[in-house]
């Protein structure tokens, strides 16, 4: 049985499943917010908001313009990166790392 934090509906297993990460450097806050929305759009899992957990503007600023998005499938991550490249201006963001074993963690 998966451990579930009271009131969230999300079990630890839901976070662990989102282990396919894409770490990007983003030049402007508006692009950060666009990528947050795009990550939710591309995530196929049950709790789509896990994809953008830990990417609030204050987190992004504290990490000098870096944010990590996490997905439950490598195809979700690929779709996210492809759509970001297609929709956003060249130079507004860049991929700096990716991993197949970087699970999401609770943000609250």
Can you give a write-up of this model?
- With 108 residues, the chain is α+β, with helices and mostly antiparallel strands.
- A 3-stranded antiparallel β-sheet has the order 2-1-3.
- Helix 2 packs across helix 4.
- It is globular.
Low-confidence parts: 1-7
Q: How are the strands ordered across the major sheet? A: 2-1-3
- Count of DSSP-assigned helices: 4
The radius of gyration over CA amounts to 13 Å
Q: What is the share of helical residues?
A: 25-40%
Biggest sheet layout: 3 strands, antiparallel
Query: What is the CA-CA span between the terminal residues?
Result: 22 Å
Q: Tell me the overall shape.
A: globular
Strand content: 15-25%
Put the structure in a nutshell.
The protein contains four helices and three strands; from the N terminus they run H-E-H-H-E-H-E. It is α+β, with helices and mostly antiparallel strands and 108 residues long. The protein is 37% helix and 19% strand.
Task: Using brief descriptors, characterize the structure shown.
about 110 residues; alpha+beta; disordered N terminus
Strand and helix layout:
Layout: H1 12-17, E1 20-26, H2 29-42, H3 57-62, E2 66-71, H4 74-87, E3 93-99
Antiparallel strand pairs: 1-2, 1-3
Helix pairs in contact: 2-4
């Amino acid at each position: 049985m998966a451990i579930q934090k009271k009131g969230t509906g999300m079990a630890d297993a839901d976070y662990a499943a989102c282990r396919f990460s894409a770490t990007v450097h983003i030049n402007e806050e508006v692009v950060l917010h666009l990528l947050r929305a795009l990550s939710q759009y591309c995530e196929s899992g049950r709790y789509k908001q896990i994809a953008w957990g830990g990417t609030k503007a204050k987190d992004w600023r504290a990490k000098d313009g870096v944010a990590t998005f996490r997905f439950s499938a490598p195809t979700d991550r690929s779709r996210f990166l492809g759509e970001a490249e297609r929709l956003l201006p060249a130079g507004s963001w860049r991929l700096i790392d990716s991993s197949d074993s970087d699970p999401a963690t609770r943000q609250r």
